[in-house]
């Protein structure tokens, strides 16, 4: 890897940011706002292919964000794009769904262990809101338990931000600590006879803190609490779905959800979300009114069928686990060589890489990611990253060539966490 | 028009419905659920082209629903699809937006009178929720006024259904009657110093009742009330946007919104929504956290740019107004000839056609739409319909040939509204 992107040589990105400053509040919104990243990260992109993305200034990166999750088979997977093109040539939005809606629902029911039925939406937030609405409709109760710090969407009832949100929007939320069965029991107790649902993420993937897989005891306790109370166990598989276990992420722990929300990777980047549920919640799911103008479009469902077929065919989760482990092992070896110690957490297919001993502002993590970016590798050290099946051994090894350089550069300058004496 | 679709000759639709009964609660969800339509309406579609849609059994219809709004330049408009194809060949979802995000925001700011900035989402509900959140963030207040019976989305705070919704989800909603300035003043009074926003639809397009354009007095009163109280005037242009006035639907009445929500027709069927706002709300819009996994995708924004360009080039609203008036005049003449009297309401580009003297279950409307459907014209008589620029004089005249037959059939059987003596 002789690639070395100059941070300042990004005239197109700079011009677009200047134009955006006039017509987009704050220059950009939401999770893809580059201002939240170390300087040098591009805001605007032009293309992606396989495991690579290219920014508007033509700089190519090995991509470990995969569009923050949606891309799971690599950018522009030919089978998926062919399925999209075939349906797109027939029509975009019609006066009803296409047959893909039925085929995709059948596919999910066959693939996701707990699923007896499916409904489709556009955003992960749509799917989570639908799950909660269905749980309330079936149980006739209101309280919803969520883990402290967990992300379940960007709508008022669950947004991580309280700006513009009223306290009534979250009046029936109660909190527990992920993997803490005692705190879960306390929250269940507090909800009393009004417990509609316990919401859990596939694993703890909160921003900026080490990730945690659910313990067997916690997963079983959540299931048992719902069974005892007659509440719904909702697994938020929006971020992790289809990367860890095609049967549903909590099936790995032997626990079946009542309702699951999927989105991100379901259609390899095409806009789609899904709720799956079991028979207990079927009637309620037929009574709630959830809909959207574009929710019936065929192309994204065709993309999902192709994506799930391909993930099944190649055992996608195993491929990504292996690729993620190769990256993890390589980074650990390099860190040790250069005198750093990493804290790598979460499943290998969705890794979070932090520096032990880093300061509160993650000075080391920032510097490392910036050096890697200059060498053509797009990493993130606060949000979990995403592997895809396009991360071949060769791509991982190319990325490791670059991170070797990043560690070397880091060791040379060795920025000390603030607060430590030089 | 010798076309005559046999209602029972729909084996593929029937088979799909039977399959869906197992894997989709209630067989289908939301506004495209055909069970809510007269029998004979297909549930599943295969394609669309120009002003025509084709169902899974190969029956073609002149389409007056336009996918319930999204299709405005006709199905598969070549310029729009070319723009989509060009961006889609580059990538679907990347690690940031493409330059189309900036270009589209600039286009909206140039086109929509009140707009100083724009933000993009996927659903109309996303856009409306964002408007309310921004209004609350800027004003520091909570109360939101909406018209009785108005549709603003399918999420708990505004859903037309209360199934699975808690009273707290709507704790800060207050209601007024559209076009009733006294009731608006009462609601403003009730909100007192906690008034964050008044929400109005482009016009009254509530399900199953005659449509009403806003009166000049009402539009000005809503604007004045917001000015006086320091609240936001939010125009829900999700359904009507770009069909009536490219500058924003309420500009026709000389009233500028503070915040507007657009979706449906913005990208000719491709999934996109937008919020536009003025400078007063810019800072608040930069502070709220609203986002979604697919909100940065370039292809739908490229589609929107192409759609808005084409609508500007051909003066789309004038084209649709003219086509809608041709349909309206033709239907009125046919109705008179066969001894019926229609109540046609709303703007010609978004017509609602009802039968004067019809009963509460709209027996006449049902029968007329069913007869039209059998003759290859897809109408709706409870929800407003949608014209598009693909509705040429020739298409309107073909449709009128078919409705002539539908009126003749109706006159022959003349089903009397229930409750009337035969």
TrEMBL record, chains A, B:
InterPro entries: Aminotrans_3 (IPR005814), PyrdxlP-dep_Trfase (IPR015424), PyrdxlP-dep_Trfase_major (IPR015421), PyrdxlP-dep_Trfase_small (IPR015422). The keyword Transmembrane helix does not apply. Belongs to the class-III pyridoxal-phosphate-dependent aminotransferase family. The keyword ATP-binding does not apply. It comes from the Bacteria. This is Glutamate-1-semialdehyde 2,1-aminomutase. Its cofactor is pyridoxal 5'-phosphate. It holds the Pfam family Aminotran_3. Keywords: Pyridoxal phosphate. GO terms for molecular function: pyridoxal phosphate binding; transaminase activity.
């Amino acid at each position: 890897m002789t690639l070395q992107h100059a941070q300042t040589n990004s005239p197109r990105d700079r011009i677009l940011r200047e134009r955006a400053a006039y017509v987009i509040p704050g220059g950009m919104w939401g999770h893809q706002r580059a201002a939240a990243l170390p300087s040098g990260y591009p805001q605007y992109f032009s293309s992606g292919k396989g495991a690579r993305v290219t920014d508007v200034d033509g700089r190519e990166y090995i991509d470990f964000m995969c569009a923050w999750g949606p891309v799971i088979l690599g950018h522009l997977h030919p089978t998926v794009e062919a399925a999209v093109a075939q349906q797109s040539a027939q029509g975009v939005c019609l006066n009803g769904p296409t047959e893909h809606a039925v085929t995709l629902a059948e596919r999910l029911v066959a693939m996701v262990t707990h699923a007896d039925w499916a409904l489709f939406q556009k955003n992960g937030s749509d799917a989570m809101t639908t799950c909660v609405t269905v749980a309330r409709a079936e149980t006739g109760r209101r309280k919803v338990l969520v883990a402290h710090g967990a992300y379940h969407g960007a709508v008022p009832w669950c947004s991580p931000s309280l700006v513009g949100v009223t306290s009534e929007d979250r009046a029936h939320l109660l909190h527990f600590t992920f993997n803490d069965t005692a705190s879960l029991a306390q929250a269940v107790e507090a909800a009393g006879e009004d417990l509609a649902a316990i919401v859990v993420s596939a694993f703890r993937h909160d921003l900026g803190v080490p990730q945690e897989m659910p313990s067997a005891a916690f997963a079983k306790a959540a299931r048992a609490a719902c069974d005892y109370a007659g509440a719904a166990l909702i697994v938020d598989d929006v971020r992790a779905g289809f990367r860890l276990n095609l049967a549903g992420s909590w099936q790995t722990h032997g626990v079946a959800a009542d309702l699951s929300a999927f989105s991100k990777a379901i259609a390899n980047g095409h806009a789609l979300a899904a709720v799956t549920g079991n028979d207990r919640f079927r009637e309620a799911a037929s009574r709630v009114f959830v809909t959207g103008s574009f929710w019936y479009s065929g192309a994204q469902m065709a993309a999902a069928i192709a994506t799930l077929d391909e993930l099944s065919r190649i055992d996608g989760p195993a491929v990504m686990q292996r690729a993620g482990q190769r990256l993890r092992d390589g980074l650990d070896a390099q860190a040790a060589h250069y005198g750093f110690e990493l804290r790598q957490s979460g499943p290998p297919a969705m890794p979070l890489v932090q520096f032990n001993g880093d300061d509160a502002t993650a000075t080391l993590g920032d510097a490392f990611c910036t050096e890697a970016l200059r060498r053509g590798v797009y990493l993130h050290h606060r949000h979990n990253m995403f592997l895809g099946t396009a991360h071949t051994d060769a791509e991982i090894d190319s990325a490791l060539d670059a991170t070797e350089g990043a560690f070397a550069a880091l060791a040379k300058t060795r920025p000390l966490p603030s607060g430590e004496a030089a």
